[in-house]
Specification:
Blueprint (H helix, E strand, L loop, with lengths): L1 H8 L5 H26 L6 H14 L2 H30 L7 H22 L2 E2 L2 E2 H20 L9 H16 L15 H28 L5 H20 L5
Antiparallel strand pairs: 1-2
Helix pairs in contact: 1-9, 2-6, 2-8, 3-4, 4-6, 5-6, 5-9, 7-8
Amino acid sequence: MLAYLRFMSGKERTEAANRHLGLTLAFVAGAVNAGGFLAVSQYTSHMTGVVSSLADNLALGQFAAVSAGTAALVSFLCGAATTALLVNWAARKRLRSRYALALMLEAALLLVFGFFGARLRSVQEFSASATVLLLCYIMGLQNAIITKVSDAVIRTTHVTGLMTDLGIELGKLVYWNADPSIHKTVEADRPKMALLSSLLGLFFSGGLVGAFGFKYAGFVAIIPLSALLFVIAIVPVWDDMTLPLED
């Protein structure tokens, strides 16, 4: 078990490790996004929609909504930047937990959301509730984690990109190679299709769990997700605390 957790979030990355971590984080992202929508009536990983609404609200003169959208966008951006800072700082220090630290921070922030989300919802910052800003920050943090570890191959909150890539592979799959001797054969990347389909499926499954959990249990339904991330991240962090630094 410890070896598997070290495989999941340790500094040594493989395609298999990135795939396992990405699938887990896709489930978490779906749950947080769906549960967060029931909490704040806003999807907090959908920055495309946020930017579009900024343009709409600016044209309509809805400056309070523009302020709220800008704050959400900046929160997501700061979350992604935090991951980059943590990863690069930990790499400079030669820590085994260079990726696990960001996961640990996400787990802690989800715990804050689970215990204090209802109270944060009433706190207004830049016309957006503190809950919205917290969730946007968490989604930016998480998306940057898997982007860093997989060199931008895997995304866990960007469903539009997943659907686009899957559609491209489906087009290749059904393409009729009339005369392979004349033209280069078009072939679908079946392992990539399986990964994309799995990411979409787990995002959707996480969304169901998050929606039902929040519907029946409220904010505390997020706490098991925090525990899951904590378990995934703890072994490399513990290794850094108990073992000498690697050369």
